[in-house]
Specification:
alpha+beta, Arc Repressor Mutant, subunit A, Chorismate lyase, 2 domains, 8 helices, elongated
Length: 281
Amino acid sequence: MLSAVLTDADPAPAATVRRENRGIPLYQQVEQLIRYKITTRRYAPGQQIPSEHELRRELNVSRVTVREALRELVRENLLIKVPGKGTFVSVDAPSGLPPIKYTGFLEELYERVKHLEVKSVFVERVPVPDRVRGLLHLDPAETTIIQIRRLRHIGHEPFSFTVNHVPTAIGDQIDPDVLRTVPLNTVFERDLKIPIVRAHETVEAAPADPEIAAQLDIPVLYPVMHVTRIMYTEGDRAFEVVETYYRADKYQYSVSLQRVKRDGKWTWDSAPTPAGPATVA
């Protein structure tokens, strides 16, 4: 997505905000912005999009940049050029993907992955990252950890790339082939008899590094939703760190809030029913 871009050939207003993002060609930034608006229905099927001149002024880029971005989207049949009239969104443009509900309960973490197709699984033993060591409170004598990488698709398109970190005592018992059809949380509880009692999840925006970009089929540095989840078992012991990267044009995380009164003061709290839907946009 694009909030401000580098100018290229055309003169810019004095108040132009410049964005240093040379990792992605300027036309691709514009292309991704328009693609995002199409898939999220900001530009609806059949709707005429702003003219090249309007896009150029809005985004502060050259006409050449706008034309290059539109040319790629036309090639993919997301846009249709009508001579003498303008450029329109194809009536067959892909819509937002089906919603994946999430209200903050562990069962819904399991429900989320049922809608996804695992395309690849890679398991290896790696040195313990410092951050993971701290989160799992690993003994200094433990120098390696099992890392599981999985790419998931939804609607035949890349949706998420997940990296799981588990201690070797647990990871060595996991069959990679099983993970193509069975969620890892199910393996923990059903096969390894590790009860999951709670999870702590953090959501943040992040730029895609080369590996994530290649997995999710997006440009390097393109924004992704980065979700870090720490899983806890009995005794409130952390036993797994999960990092999932979602395509920002396909994932939306929202939380419903309500006003409640505590100790005589009004404050915000998450709504109990339903709360926190997570949808694919």
